Amino acid sequence: MFQYRIDTKMEKSPLVEKVLFKIARQWIAGDTMDDALQSARQANKNGMNAILNKLGEHMVSKPKINQTVDEYLTLVSNLRKAKVTGGLSIKPTQVGLALGTKECSKNLETIIEQALQDLAFVWIDMESSEYTSDTFAIYLSLFEKYERLGIVIQANLKRTQKDLEMLLRKGAKIRLVKGAYHESPKNAYRTRHDVDENYKKLMKRLFDDANEFAIATHDSKLIKMAINLSRKHERKFEFQMLKGIRDELKPTLVKDGFAVAEYIPYGTNWLPYSIRRLKERKRNILLLGSSFIHS
Ligand code: FDA
Question: Predicted ipTM?
Fold first, then answer.
């Protein structure tokens, strides 16, 4: 894992930020809501659903949190006006989880109410493990009232198998991911092999017993396994991938008749999201290195 680490002090240098931005552009729709809507329309045109996320996390200022909630309210109504199919994906800490579960739940409910009118599905992203239990509690209380609501589980966390069984009993709508946050070995599998093995186990359980779920990965072997499982079990599921990653594979899945969604982030707060993408792949780190040489 060491070679994937980027020094946090380095991230704050203006030169690093400039070079990073050049690489990060491929993963982000742009600064504005219009940029996001344009990318969403393009995703629909390419046969995919669009899942929009306004970049931002760990917010503690109430005015900024309220601004984010307002942005999502405008976004869902604009999605409907633009006849975009898809929905939203929201990070709990961008709508108040760092201030407490009550604040976060209230804000999420405001957005979900609006999304319901505008026929958009809402996903709640999962952040680092300090927030996992609270995020599940918020999800479950809202899911009792709102059906078009999904939650994320992370294959890198050791607790996830147990969480999945609990969520399956409640009929939850689940997105399975590998997990993007740096976690301690006490809580998390740390090798690629262990995370992938856990992902496979969790995916099998989804195909056995879940109603509606998402396989969110760019990993060819896991996508192949999901395709094989889908031939044995008739299930309502969708492949989900991030904007700018595996763009050559998305049309093939669409052509083969699978539901595919593209997760499209936008906004000016692009750094934390981009650092996570960069750390996921050795080749991206090399790209960063060569960009320095040519900058
Ligand atoms: P892995 O990282 O092993 O990559 C497999 C292959 O995909 C690579 O070999 C490469 O070809 C390609 N690839 C992957 N990442 C790339 C990159 N950055 N640049 C170029 N190529 C790349 N996480 C989380 O903790 N909470 C969440 O809520 C979400 N939500 C979410 C939604 C959606 C729709 C997706 C697709 C992912 C998330 N994630 C997430 C992120 C997830 O946990 C994980 O970090 C990334 O998807 C990368 O893992 P892969 O499964 O793609 O495998």
Answer: 0.97
